[in-house]
Design goal:
- The complex is a heterodimer of chains A (541) and B (330).
- With 541 residues, chain A is an alpha+beta fold.
- Chain A contains ten helices and nine strands.
- Chain A is rod-shaped and about 230 Å long.
- In chain A, 25% of the residues are buried.
- Chain B is built from 13 helices and ten strands.
- In chain B, the strands form two sheets. Chain B has a five-stranded parallel beta sheet with strand order 2-1-3-4-5, with helices on both faces. Chain B has a five-stranded parallel beta sheet with strand order 7-6-8-9-10, sandwiched between helices.
- In chain B, α3 packs parallel to α4 (88-96), α8 crosses α13 and α9 packs across α13 (305-329).
- The longest helix of chain B has 25 residues, at 305-329.
- Chain B is globular and about 55 Å long.
- Classes of the chains: A alpha+beta (541), B alpha/beta (330).
- The A-B interface holds A 283-284, 286-299, 301-302, 305, 345, 349, 354, 357-358, 361, 364-365, 405, 408-409 and B 14, 16-17, 19-21, 23-24, 26-27, 57-60, 83-85, 87, 105-110, 113.
Chain lengths: 541, 330
């Protein structure tokens, strides 16, 4: 019990801890995954931008080269008089592109290249910034003149300022190498920077992924450990449960056995109570039977003896008559003496009338035996195990006859029976009730005193009431509540099982009746039984 | 015919029983009848009653109580209990309190009643020949005097008490108490008991009812046949009504005690038994069993086969001892 309560106290804490830890792991895991994802996006974006930058830078270089080349061509063509239109146009386009790209790089902003818009930002790193600044420095002194030149109409070669053109060509040629170099190094720088950034980002990405894996593994390990812990806990709990189940099963078995033992003991006790009252009854009955049996047997033997005496008298009388008839008188005196002797015995002891009385008394004895057997049968009523209508008074009468032996030495029995106390009952069971109450009443009368037992019956609103009252020693107040409890007895061990009145109570209960007891110490006890005349139909459905 | 009829008394609360018994007995005896113990004791005091037979279960005084009182009023009167139901308690009471001569069950046989009454009156006559009826009162007082006399003798020459059939230690407390006054022996087997009896006659045998294979009644009968003055006491845990009845009728057992018994009670019993044995020696007529055997050998139970065998054994023990004895002495 103790361990279980401890467990329950610990559980919420560990649960919170366990889940809290899991949540932390999950958050870290998802954060890392998200950061790797974000980094990836960032990387993609950055590399797209870098590509743009490199593309624009390449275009810057190309534009310059094209512009320089076409400008030189325009000068040549002007000298040769060839058409300059195409070259001039190319020059214009290239130099505008160059300017716009460089401006976009220098100031940040968008630029349209071949109809596509690129958004550029000012380089933040020192190296590209310096190159762009150098380029701007190289470009800005000539920018306005060059752009003005490019805007002149090539159709009219006269409008082209030869001087400016020459100056521009010269500038372009002299600066060509420097600008090309600068833009080349700009491209390279941009590429290098892009490369650097990519590797940096890739490093972070890898770091994030590695951390994710680490966190994931940690989580796995942690969960595995906790699962295993939980498993062992579950296992031990399982074991505990199995153990407890076994104990419970054992306990149940034990209780079952105890219950069975108890039932058996109860049965045995009820049986021994029955045997005890049976023993008492048998002792009484044996005496009741053996007394008439004794004198009837004695009487028969006496009749036999008397019959012998009388028939010998008759024989002598016969002999006397024959002697008288034959006239042989010499023996007459002797025979007469013998006959007289026989007759004298018969007369002295009045054998004839006594024999008659012996027969009468024997018949009385036999009647008594017969009555006893009839009452025994009535009492047990073994042939009537069903509910039937019987007269309570008859039941009491036959119980009285059975208990007679126990009662007659101790008390006068007074009967007040109301007529027609018939009711539905199990007569044999009620007889047991009356017998128990009567023997209890007899036992309540103190040794050597002549008591009085009063039995009365009457009917009342569909009930039959039986009162059994004695003037014995009474029941102490503290015992009154307990007398109907099984095994309650005030008799010494071995003399009473304490079941008599509990059996009475049960039988009355079965008859849907009530039993009450009033008692005063030293004055006597009265049991009042109230039984309904009709039993409810149990199986009527 | 010429001999005057003896007075007998029958007690029963059932008049029809009295009628029947009276019809049976009136040819040979003057029959007095009583329907209660109180009435019986009155009659007993008025007439020289030779035999009294009482029913056990009666309202008021019980049979054994009537007989106990009868013994006090008229010790020579032979006491018989007639009962319709033999419960052990009444049997034991009748032996221990009433010291009855016979225990008869209802329904009875006329022949049995007649022979027991005949024997009873004869024993009574024997007893009273010592002390004529005129000295009736002297006889009455005798039992009260004798114990004192005997008590002195006890101190002079020790009486021996033999316990038969008890486990060692079973009786140690009782034995120890008796040792100061008596020679106390103990035997577990019948053979051993015979040897001890043959060596030195004992006054009292205290016997269990169950030991070895021997029937205890046969054993005690065999002993009593050879040593009539031995007084038998049965002390047992076994409650057997039939055995108790037989021990009265066949053995005239002095006491039938059912364990547990208090030490004082037991000591008293042994004391009484010793004085009884003493009176058997000085006045053999008081030994009812022995007298009955002499008067009517045919109606006293003839020895069973086993008892005869036991008697032979006992005699063998005696003769073996008598052969060795002179040698021991010389």
């Amino acid at each position: 019990m103790q361990t279980i309560s401890n467990d329950t106290a610990q559980q919420p804490l560990t649960r919170l801890q366990r889940y809290g830890e899991l949540i932390i792991y999950a958050v870290i895991f998802f954060a890392l995954v998200a950061s790797a994802f974000v980094l990836n996006i960032f990387l993609t974006e950055q590399s797209a931008k870098d590509t743009n930058d490199v593309f624009c830078a390449t275009r810057l270089q190309q534009s310059w080269r094209k512009a320089q080349k076409n400008l030189t061509e325009v000068q040549n063509n002007l000298m040769t008089g060839a058409n300059i239109n195409e070259n001039f146009n190319n020059f214009r386009y290239a130099i505008e592109n160059f300017d716009s790209i460089l401006t976009a790089f220098y100031f940040g902003g968008s630029v349209v290249i071949d109809g596509e818009i690129f958004t550029l930002i000012k380089p933040t790193e020192a190296r590209p910034k310096k190159i762009i600044n150098d380029l701007q420095e190289m470009w800005s002194p000539i920018k306005a003149e060059m752009l003005a030149l490019s805007r002149t109409n090539p159709q009219n070669s006269a409008t082209i300022n030869q001087e400016v053109l020459a100056k521009m060509v010269e500038y372009a040629v002299t600066r060509d190498e420097a600008i090309l170099d600068a833009s080349q190094s700009f491209i390279v720088t941009l590429g290098e920077l892009s490369q650097e950034r990519v590797s940096k980002l890739q490093f972070f990405q890898i770091l994030a992924l590695v951390s994710t894996v680490v966190v994931f593994l940690a989580m796995v390990v942690r969960v595995t450990i906790s699962l295993r812990k939980k498993d062992t806990l579950l296992d031990s709990q399982m074991e505990e449960i199995t153990k407890q189940r076994d104990t419970i099963a054992n306990e149940k078995e034990r209780i079952d056995k105890l219950l069975k033992d108890l039932q058996m003991t109860q049965t045995q006790l009820v049986q021994s109570e029955k045997m005890a009252s049976l023993g008492q009854m048998v002792a009484g009955l044996a005496h009741e039977v053996n007394t008439p049996l004794g004198f009837v047997r004695g009487n028969i033997e006496i009749s036999q003896r008397n019959h012998g005496i009388i028939s010998s008298a008759l024989r002598q009388h016969d002999k006397l008559r024959q002697t008288l008839e034959s006239g042989e008188v010499e023996e007459l005196e002797q025979i007469l003496l013998e006959a007289k002797e026989s007759i004298e015995k018969i007369n002295d002891y009045d054998l004839l009338s006594k024999t008659e009385r012996v027969f009468e008394e024997s018949l009385k004895g036999i009647d008594r035996l017969q009555e006893l057997v009839t009452n025994l049968k009535n009492f047990s009523r073994l042939d009537e195990a069903v509910l039937k209508i019987a007269d309570i008074n008859e039941g009491i009468e036959s119980s009285l006859l059975i208990a007679n032996n126990a009662l007659k030495h101790k008390a006068e029995v007074e009967k007040h029976f109301a007529p027609n106390c018939t009711m539905e009952c199990y007569p044999a069971q009620l007889n047991q009730v009356f017998l128990n109450l009567l023997t209890n009443a007899a036992q309540a009368i103190e040794e050597g005193k002549r008591g009085k037992i009063c039995i009365s019956t009457f009917t009342e609103n569909g009930y039959v009431v039986v009162k059994v009252a004695d003037n014995g020693k009474g029941i102490p107040k503290e015992h009154l509540k307990k007398i109907f409890e099984p095994f309650f007895t005030t008799k010494p061990i071995g003399q009473g099982t304490g079941l008599g009145l509990s059996i009475v109570f049960k039988i009355i209960e079965q008859h849907n009746g009530t039993i009450d007891v009033e008692s005063e110490a030293g004055k006597g006890t009265t049991f009042t039984i109230k039984l309904p005349r009709k039993q409810p139909r149990k199986n009527a459905q | 015919m010429s001999k005057p009829k003896s007075h007998v008394l029958i007690v029963d609360d059932e008049p029809l029983v009295l009628n029947s018994l009276q019809n049976l007995l009136e040819f040979d005896y003057i029959v007095h009848r009583a329907q209660s113990g109180e009435e019986a004791l009155k009659i007993l005091a008025m007439h020289p009653i030779k035999v009294i037979m009482s029913d056990q279960r009666m309202p008021g005084m019980m049979g054994h109580e009537v007989l106990r009182e009868a013994k006090r009023i008229s010790p020579s009167t032979i006491r018989i209990l007639l009962t319709g139901y033999s419960d052990l308690e009444s049997i034991i009471n009748s032996v221990n309190a009433g010291e009855i001569f016979r225990y008869i069950n209802k329904p009875w046989k006329s022949e049995m009643i007649m022979s027991v009454f005949k024997l009873g009156t004869q024993i009574y006559d024997r007893l009273t020949q010592l002390a004529p009826v005129t000295n009736f009162n002297a006889l009455v007082n005798k039992p009260q005097e004798t114990p004192n006399k005997i008590h002195i003798e006890v101190e002079e020459k020790s009486h021996s008490v033999l316990f038969v059939g008890y486990e060692d230690g079973d009786m140690s407390n009782l034995l120890r108490q008796l040792q100061s006054q008596y020679d106390v022996y103990q035997s577990v087997s019948v053979d051993d008991a015979f040897n001890k009896i043959a060596r030195k006659p004992v006054s009292v045998i205290v016997s269990n009812v169950e030991f070895g294979q021997e029937n205890v009644l046969d054993f005690l009968s065999a002993v009593k046949n050879e040593y009539p003055e031995v007084v038998t006491v049965i002390l047992t845990e076994v409650v057997d009504a039939n055995l108790a009845i037989r021990s009265i009728n066949e053995l005239n057992v002095f006491r039938y005690l059912v364990k547990p018994v208090s030490q004082d009670e037991f000591k008293q019993v042994i004391e009484n038994a010793v004085s009884k044995s003493q009176s058997y020696k000085t006045m053999p007529e008081t030994n009812l069993l022995q007298t009955a055997k002499q008067l009517a050998p045919n109606i006293v139970a003839s020895p069973s086969e086993q008892e005869s065998a036991l008697r032979l054994k006992l005699r063998a023990a005696q003769s073996a001892l008598s052969k060795t004895k002179p040698r021991d002495l010389t």
